[in-house]
Amino acid sequence: MTRPLHSGRRPLPAHVTVYLFVLVPFLALVAAVPVAWGWGLTWLDVFLAVGWYTVTCLGATVGYHRYFTHGSFKAHRPLRIALGVVGSMAVQGPILHWVADHRRHHAFADKEGDPHSPWLFGTSPAALVRGFWHAHLGWILDRNLTNQERFAPDLLADRDMRIMHRMFGPLTIVTLVAPAVMGGLISWSWAGALTAFFWAGLVRITLLHHVTWSVNSVCHMIGDRPFTARDKSANFWPLALLSMGESWHNLHHADPTQARHGVRRGELDVSARVIWLFERFGWAYDVRWPTADRLVRIAR
């Protein structure tokens, strides 16, 4: 018997928290321009924001996405736990929720059942506007929870991952407070702590949110489609660097378990290079690299 798509609803306190973690960082992003104009933006803020963005984005792309969701490679336990920790600090949701949602997305890509397809409401201009909003952000505000027993039974059976799921709240505090502590200690000032909290904490999280959500929305609406997929996934090159290679989305949907998404000349894929480094250091193994024969079979 097939299990249902959903397994209940998000408790009200947790749902309120979702709204807070969407709205508060977004307000910080809106305030970023006048704050930069009025207070200035120090090089320390820039370095901390870029550093924290890079590490936490890779936690989501290499960890949550390519490893935990799709099994693009195998990892020894220390790397497995580290990827879960850093992925959680991207503040995109507890690991069991994230993996279940994304596996469900691939199971029903751009069809009924997909949690965040922009094509669920039709193809008229009004329907596409509604679909873009739904795919980009609206779906996150839905209280229905994807059934983890159906879509993530392997992680549910893993004690480390059950603990990681429960650690999402404390790790969210860490990802906000740690940049402020670093900024304060390096500048030896409360002002340095405050600006680091703003830029490397709130603004960094918001930018990462919207880059990730753009892969759900933009990369299913516009872009290049060199490979055959069952859905409308597309490559959108302007997001390639900020998304660490995730916006080479068409290849990913054509062959989801591949460790590298950007496979053509000039397609920068930072996440794939990081996985390559893990393999070289012996931390990761059985990496599923794309082969020429496989790419030929899925090419249009």
UniProtKB/TrEMBL annotation:
- Transmembrane annotation, as ranges: 12-40, 46-67, 79-99, 119-141, 168-190
Which keywords are on file for this protein?
Fatty acid metabolism, Iron, Lipid metabolism, Membrane, Oxidoreductase, Transmembrane, Transmembrane helix
In what residue span(s) does the Fatty acid desaturase domain sit?
42-261
**What does the record say about its membrane topology?**
Multi-pass membrane protein
Main localization of the protein described in the UniProt heading: membrane
Cellular compartments annotated: Membrane
Question: In which family does this protein belong, per the annotation?
Answer: Belongs to the fatty acid desaturase type 2 family.
Q: What is this protein called?
A: Acyl-CoA desaturase
Q: Which species?
A: Paractinoplanes pyxinae
UniProt lineage: Bacteria, Bacillati, Actinomycetota, Actinomycetes, Micromonosporales
